[in-house]
Every structure is written in structure tokens, then in C-alpha cells.
């Protein structure tokens, strides 16, 4: 009996290769997400925080209807 030509052995070998490929893909994805996160954080920090300009005089934007 030749065990190397067994379909069970071939299936097991293929499963091990698939698991290894899946682990490698997960590591690549994790590194890619970390890089994207770093770039996004840098971009957000580079955007200046502008204070909103609020109306202080006039009828538009200064009156509140408490019954609404």
C-alpha cells in the first residue's frame, strides 16, 4: 500500500496549505489595515480645526422659538 498516493493524504496536505495561506492572508490584511489607519490618523491630524462662525446680531440665527 502506497500511502503517498492516498486521497486522504492529498486532502490533508491541501488543507494544511490552505490554512497556511489563510494565516498569511490574515497577516497581510492586518498590516494593510494598520498602514491605512496610520495614514488616516495623519490626515485627520493635518486638518485644521476651524471654529464655526455663529451669528451674534440680527434675526437669523440668534432667535430661538421655545414653542417649536
List the helices and strands and how they pair.
Blueprint: H1 7-46
What is the assembly state of the chains in this entry?
single chain
Mean pLDDT: 75
Instruction: Give me the strand/helix succession.
Output: H
Largest sheet: none
Main structural class: mainly alpha
Rg over C-alpha atoms, rounded to the nearest angstrom: 30 Å
User: What fraction, in percent, of the residue positions are helical?
Assistant: 55-70%
**Percentage of residues in strands:** under 5%
Which outline best applies?
elongated
**Unreliable stretches:** none
Distance between the amino and carboxyl termini? 87 Å
Number of strands: 0
Helical segment count: 1
Commentary on this structure:
By secondary structure, this protein is mostly helical. It has a domain at 3-46. The protein is built from one helix and no strands. It has one helix at residues 7-46. The longest helix is centred in the middle third of the chain and has 40 residues, at 7-46. The chain is elongated, with a radius of gyration of 30 Å. The mean pLDDT is 75.
Concise synopsis of the structure shown:
The chain is mainly alpha-helical and about 70 residues long. Helices cover about 60% and strands about 0% of the residues. It has one helix and no strands.
Task: From the structure above, extract its key features.
mainly alpha, 68 residues, single chain, 1 helix
